[in-house]
Amino acid sequence: MAPIVTASILPTKRKRCLSGDALAPNHKRRSALACYSGSRNIRLETIRFMPQHLQNFKRIVIKIGSSLLVDPKEGLRRTWLESLLADVATLACGDLKREIIIVSSGAIALGRKQLHATGVDLGSRPLKLEESQAAAAVGQIALSQIYSQTLHSHSLVAAQILLTIEDTEVRRRYLNARNTITKALAWGAIPIINENDTVATSEIRYGDNDRLAARVATMIGADLLVLFSDVDGLFDSPPQENPNAKLVQRVTAIDKRIEAMAGGAASQHSRGGMRTKIEAARIATASGTAMVIANGLFDHPLSALDQSATGTWFDTNPNAIKDRKKWISGVLDVSGQLTIDAGALIALEGGKSLLPAGVTYVTGEFSRGDTILIKGPHGRPIARGLVEYDAQTAKQIAGLKTEQITAILGTATRSTMIHRDNLVMEG
């Protein structure tokens, strides 16, 4: 059973647990913490689980909810966003050099506020589909500009990426999206990702950015997913109804007991709730990404999280890598076959990727991202994996070196036929 940290409600508000030296490499945490949490304080009486410092994670996805980014009355919480991006800069720059990806809600909510300022009052009612799409179109431009300007002040570049559900669920589009995000990170940019609400419909959408963030985290192999929201984490009962509700500090496995603790969305602009956060945790941890649900109401929320560790932390699935290999080898249909030479066989057995130069024969009709079977020079199946080229191109470049491939295709090419991360040996 996952340990639950004993919590008690303090009668008076206390000072926010923020520090100017948060995120510093030698920072030491306290054993007992008091953090401001909305309308009350929670003192963690005992901490039986202490997560690592954020800088111990190399690639971090941060999800920001609409209720944090946009105030229903005042509009964009610019000071708060600037403090968050200052934290991001601390992690991304200097000696730390962490890779940060932000999944940001708020386009529709911000669009509503901007339209209201021009005399278009959409009120607080739920929007029709076309209204949501148009409001997102208005808000997305302003949101992107704010991210770009603020990150630029820290000598960082923002890379806006809008995704739909097909971009993570359709394999070929998944590979393209992953390559785009990976390249942006390699350039030192901060990807700012949101669901493309301007074209998404109720039938083809995530509906919340919790699950989108989890899909992005698994897509790029993130080490940690941080879900910032207006709640402290997962409680064993609704804290609004039960003053003795206890914060769950750590979840080692998501079972029916954990699912039963989840509730619905609590704010006007939020489409997600604790239930979608638990679903996000299931997606992320199954693929080897740790996750934490934390209160982001504070200024400098990353610093606060790094200092206090207050929130609900989800352990990764210890069989995550094995599960992914099982998915590649047993779930997807084989669309074609590659036969390789003896040198390529030795390379694969040594954990290397399959290069076009080692391929001697290509059969079948397949597209990039399909699962194909790999046969050794003896003709027996030895592996399978997700191919980087379609069948026609694979036949063109089989047996060729990189410079020869570039001369034939006339464009920048991918160096592998099947990357080792997308390949599993059989037997």
Walk me through this protein's architecture.
The chain is an alpha/beta fold. The protein folds into two domains: 268 residues, Carbamate kinase (3-Layer(aba) Sandwich), CATH 3.40.1160.10; 104 residues, Archaeosine Trna-guanine Transglycosylase, Chain: A, domain 4. The chain has 14 helices and 18 strands. The strands form four sheets. Strands 8-9-7-4-10-12-13-11 form an eight-stranded mixed beta sheet, sandwiched between helices. The radius of gyration is 24 Å and the shape is globular. The relative contact order is 0.12.
Summarize it:
The chain is α/β, with parallel strands linked by helices. 34% of the residues lie in helices and 20% in strands.
What would you say the CATH architecture of the largest domain is? 3-Layer(aba) Sandwich
pLDDT under 50 segments (min length 5)? 1-22, 24-50, 264-272
Spatial shape: globular
- Biggest sheet: strands side by side, in what order? 8-9-7-4-10-12-13-11
Quaternary state of this entry equals single chain
Q: What would you call the structural class? A: alpha/beta
Number of helices: 14
Helix content: 25-40%
What is the average per-residue confidence, as pLDDT, rounded to a whole number? 80
Largest sheet, strands/sense/barrel: 8 strands, mixed
Give the terminus-to-terminus CA distance. 36 Å
CATH topology of the largest domain: Carbamate kinase
Beta-strand percentage range: 15-25%
- Count structural domains: 2
User: From the alpha-carbon coordinates, what is the Rg to the nearest angstrom?
Assistant: 24 Å
